[in-house]
Write a structure and sequence with these properties.
Helices cover 0% and strands 48% of the residues. The chain is mainly beta and 126 residues long. It is globular and about 40 Å long.
């Protein structure tokens, strides 16, 4: 059974930076596409970024492109999300998610991911 554990959330001021980590366990890490989603109070869960299992291609939502960077370190079974120039609207619980067999058209769809972490809170103060 795949397990995902996020860490690195916290409180930061507008314009600041935070780095999130997602440690993957329970199966071969390299077989999974891993993404980050977020959910703000009263809003639906939304796609943030993802990194494909083979080749490592990355995809971002328009709202974070140019500010956030997703990367992975296979030797540590870990995916990272570096968040720079944070804005109050980035405030949310951030979730790590993993899936197999995703195609490009489903990478931004939360339903395409089979495994989810518990989430980590990111709060950006104005």
């Amino acid at each position: 059974q795949v397990q995902l554990a996020e860490s690195g959330g916290g409180l930061v001021q507008t314009g600041g930076s935070l780095g999130l980590s997602c440690v993957h366990s329970g199966d071969t890490f390299s077989r999974y596409t891993v993404g980050w989603f977020r959910q703000a109070p009263g809003k639906e869960r939304e796609f943030v970024a993802t990194i494909k299992r083979y080749g490592g291609s990355t995809y971002y939502s328009d709202s974070v492109k140019g500010r956030f960077t997703i990367s992975k370190q296979t030797a540590k079974n870990t995916v990272y999300l570096q968040m720079n120039n944070l804005k109050p609207e980035d405030t949310a619980v951030y979730y790590c998610a993993a899936g197999q067999g995703l195609i490009t058209s489903t990478l931004r769809d939360a339903n395409a991911y089979s495994y989810w972490g518990q989430g980590t809170q990111v709060t950006v103060s104005s």
